Amino acid sequence: xxxxxxxxxxxxxxxxxxxxxxxxxxxxxxxxxxxxxxxxxxxxxxxxxxxxxxxxxxxxxxxxxxxxxxxxxxxxxxxxxxxxxxxxxxxxxxxxxxxxxxxxxxxxxxxxxxxxxxxxxxxxxxxxxxxxxxxxxxxxxxxxxxxxxxxxxxxxxxxxxxxxxxxxxxxxxxxxxxxxxxxxxxxxxxxxxxxxxxx
Length: 199
Prior knowledge:
By secondary structure, this protein is α+β, with helices and mostly antiparallel strands. 18% of the residues lie in helices and 33% in strands. Strands 1-2-3-4-5-6-7-8 form an eight-stranded antiparallel β-barrel. The N and C termini lie far apart (66 Å).
């Protein structure tokens, strides 16, 4: 009887251990939920041409989106500034300007922040949502109630698009990415060796 009890305890322990390992393996191989960090492209609603790229970074639990690249039209000023801004962004260059501030993440949704309209200097409440596949960022600016806001969809750009950014933007917002082979999120680019391997 004691031998049967010992075998039963051993079998139960083995079953528990196998189940625990399977659960841990499934959790460790599950892909991470997409987030807003990285580069996003805004297209013109009428022409479909790129208007600007936005770089989102996370700092201390808050997400910030800056204008990372401008696609100027021939009639646009060569180095546009935010002349209509009424806060610390007044007369700052649009390139590198913090457009979205103080967004707090809750899964795929971001709330509690604000977005600047550089055309008139108005600051609106904002919310964002990353699509489950991580390829679309829906940005909504609004006054008062989110229901009365307007959605804009921005498309994620590949990590290698970072190479097209002004080095000042990289140094200011992604200082870790100044190392060869690192992506916007600080991950090692596929097909490159880490900087330590280059020594």
